[in-house]
């Protein structure tokens, strides 16, 4: 049977989406997934996402990084699958779905999708970086001259030297004079810089607020692939009601051979 696929992007973080409600997609075949995500031999994407049934929500999101292995939460992918679920007619302008880090709510307004992220409790602040989990693990480090910074080289070095095999995503941030937070991310599982990372910009906004460096709400973010916003509440040191907002759209569709 022919398998349809859809290509989506959210601020340049791009994904292959597959409606797997009837099952049949080989999610345990990591080399097949890696081949589909390959930018020369496949469709090309930062990750692959399966939309599946879930008894307690509108649907379930199953996320794989471009290396073919199961990933943790993907914020931009969560916004893409929300738009995909609407395209498939499963939901209207609001939905609830289950991902690897639990239940998420999302809202659609035109091409803009807002996704409620998991609450954040513990943040580890070190001398020149912070580490926190926004559904995926994130290292957040301020640098100057971010535009010209070698994100691939430094990201790869820190990912392995500080975090070993489980690894972490590595975000470099620089506050701009106009109050916008510029963020560039080296993504674990892609093992390269991506154009944008949703859980990463969420981590960056929270880590900067926690250090009193950027209390502006909502936080306006610039990534290589476009602009995002992160809004949250702070209750007794914990971050709740965290919303990530930005564009997400279908780019093309096709059939797997
Ligand atoms: N691009 C994603 C992050 C995906 C998860 C990550 N690569 C991992 O498994 O660590 C996002 O938008 O959050």
Automatic annotation (TrEMBL):
Site description Could be important to modulate the pK values of the two catalytic cysteine residues, residues in chain: 138, 187
Pathway: Amino-acid biosynthesis; L-lysine biosynthesis via DAP pathway; DL-2,6-diaminopimelate from LL-2,6-diaminopimelate: step 1/1
GO cellular component annotations of the record: cytosol
Subcellular location: Cytoplasm
Tagged with keyword Metal-binding: no
Record's keyword terms, sorted: Amino-acid biosynthesis, Cytoplasm, Isomerase, Lysine biosynthesis
Reactions accelerated catalytically: (2S,6S)-2,6-diaminopimelate = meso-2,6-diaminopimelate
Pfam short name (any one): DAP_epimerase
Main localization, broad class: cytoplasm
GO molecular-function term, one example from the UniProt record: diaminopimelate epimerase activity
E.C. designation(s): 5.1.1.7
Segments passing through the bilayer: none
GO biological process: lysine biosynthetic process via diaminopimelate
Domain of life: Bacteria
Entry binding sites for substrate: 13, 65, 75-76, 169, 187-188, 198-199
Annotated catalytic residues: 74 (proton donor), 197 (proton acceptor)
Family (UniProt): Belongs to the diaminopimelate epimerase family.
Role played: Catalyzes the stereoinversion of LL-2,6-diaminopimelate (L,L-DAP) to meso-diaminopimelate (meso-DAP), a precursor of L-lysine and an essential component of the bacterial peptidoglycan.
Complexes and interactors: Homodimer.
Record PANTHER family: DIAMINOPIMELATE EPIMERASE, DIAMINOPIMELATE EPIMERASE, CHLOROPLASTIC
HAMAP family linked: DAP_epimerase
Protein name, entry field: Diaminopimelate epimerase
Record organism: Robiginitalea biformata (strain ATCC BAA-864 / DSM 15991 / KCTC 12146 / HTCC2501)
